[in-house]
Specification:
By secondary structure, the chain is an alpha/beta fold. The chain is 37% helix and 10% strand. It has 15 helices and seven strands. A hairpin with a 5-residue loop joins strand 3 and strand 4. Helix 13 packs antiparallel against helix 15 and helix 14 runs antiparallel to helix 15.
């Protein structure tokens, strides 16, 4: 045990003693006890004081357990990952928090909940996305809603692209594109006939159904970008019933509009392993026409500009500090405009354009931000003066730069 502790606190997991299959040390498999000792004798908080050998499926959603280093390396990597992602959290409490999540994971599994196992943890600050198979990410322009949806889908599917579907709605999109419809098909002799073809969503659901039939428990995530730009009732049709979280699976079977042309009497349903994520622009005027029946079937999560500023660090590097300062100052000024509010914030995605303009902030303003703000202010009182106030905030020349307020929406991070 002494050898394990000595090498463990040095993170020397290449030592043969940590080879989980070949080590002759009798204590190597007693991870609950050894991990607690590592917690005691290590400087800082590089280990969790929980038995990571239990509930392996849950822990492996963070970092997979390898043969070399086993649960001890996994303990260290998980706390390193979470602490780096959320430095504001106290590391000593992370073990307890994650242990509670793991218990919830096991309880859901034992209760045969419709929530799949990998649907019990995403990011700690996106817990509002865990409770429903139908989610809509809404927020101001440029807040990275589509990116967030793809990140969630990637995590739910363990990065398997075959289990992720994507479509962007627009005014011309309809039921025949989404579910099924008659499509012109060339016969090869110059003539054309119409054949019944499945739409993108029906094909996706069939793929998920086939996976379940073969015993797979894989998650399938379908992303609908700009969901409010399409005519929802025309696109979903009778799927309003099947999409309801309470009617997933065969109990939500429906006959589609072209059922009379089917070769079999088989009805259509949305499998329990299909998760739907939509994105929506908060200030798009078409939001007002979003179908109320569909609203009831989705959970809405706000993605704020402040919650997504981390993307600037990833892309802009050392230049991110000034970009974030200008972004926050501009958004604080926007909130102070009588006709505007936080829904009109500028999202950090706009500041990613800095790389395209060689970090010329004047070009960023004139070519990207000013046109958007002019649309916001068109027809408002003292439009020119207000735009000048916003420009001063962007230039950091306004009096008393305002720190962003805590909106309580940090659960939409990443």
């Amino acid at each position: 045990m002494y050898e394990i502790i000595k090498e463990g606190i040095r993170f020397n997991f290449e030592n043969p003693i940590f080879d989980m299959k070949r080590s002759t040390n009798e204590f190597i498999g007693r991870s609950a006890m050894v991990t607690k000792l590592l917690c005691i004798y290590s400087e800082g908080d590089p280990f969790f004081g929980v038995n990571i050998n239990s509930q392996k499926e849950f822990w492996n959603h963070f970092v997979s357990q390898t043969n070399q280093g086993g649960p001890y390396l996994q303990n260290h990597k998980i706390i390193e990952l979470v602490s780096k992602t959320y430095p504001e959290l106290e590391p000593s409490k992370l073990g307890t928090m994650l242990f509670e999540y793991s218990k919830l994971f096991m309880e859901n599994k034992e209760d045969n909940s419709t929530m799949d196992s990998s649907n019990n943890f995403r990011h700690q600050l996106t817990q509002s996305l865990l409770k429903s198979p139908n989610l809509i990410l809404r927020g101001a322009p440029g807040t990275g809603k589509t990116r967030l949806a793809k990140d969630i889908a990637k995590e739910l599917t363990n990065g398997n692209k075959d289990q992720i579907g994507f479509v962007q709605f627009h005014p011309s999109y309809d039921y025949t594109d989404f579910v099924e419809g008659l499509r012109p098909v060339s016969n090869g002799d110059g003539t054309i006939e119409f054949k019944l073809e499945d739409g993108i969503f029906k094909k996706f659901c069939q793929k998920a159904r086939d996976a379940k039939k073969t015993g797979g428990q894989d998650n399938f995530v379908f992303i609908i970008d700009e969901i409010n730009r399409g005519e929802i009732s025309k696109i979903f049709g009778e799927l309003f019933f099947s999409i309801d979280p309470g009617y997933r699976g065969e109990k939500g079977c429906v006959s589609t509009q072209y059922a009379n042309l089917h070769e079999t009497d088989e009805k259509f349903y949305i499998p329990e392993n299909v998760y739907i994520i939509g994105t929506m622009n908060d200030i798009d005027r078409s939001v007002d026409t979003f179908d109320f029946a569909m609203r009831r079937r989705f959970r809405f999560v706000e993605v704020t500009a402040e919650s997504q500023v981390g993307m600037l660090d990833d892309v802009l590097g050392d230049e991110a500090k000034e970009a974030k300062k200008r972004l926050r100052n501009l958004n604080a000024a926007i909130e102070n405009i009588q006709e505007l509010n936080s829904h009109y914030h500028i999202g950090p995605s706009y500041f990613l354009k800095l790389k395209d303009v060689d970090f010329d902030y004047e070009l960023l303003w004139s070519d990207y931000l000013k046109p958007l703000l002019e649309d916001y202010l068109r027809g408002s009182y003292e439009e020119t003066e207000t735009l000048e106030t916003l420009k001063n905030a962007f230039d950091l020349t306004n009096n008393g730069q305002t720190e962003p307020q805590d909106t309580g929406d940090n659960d939409a991070n990443h």
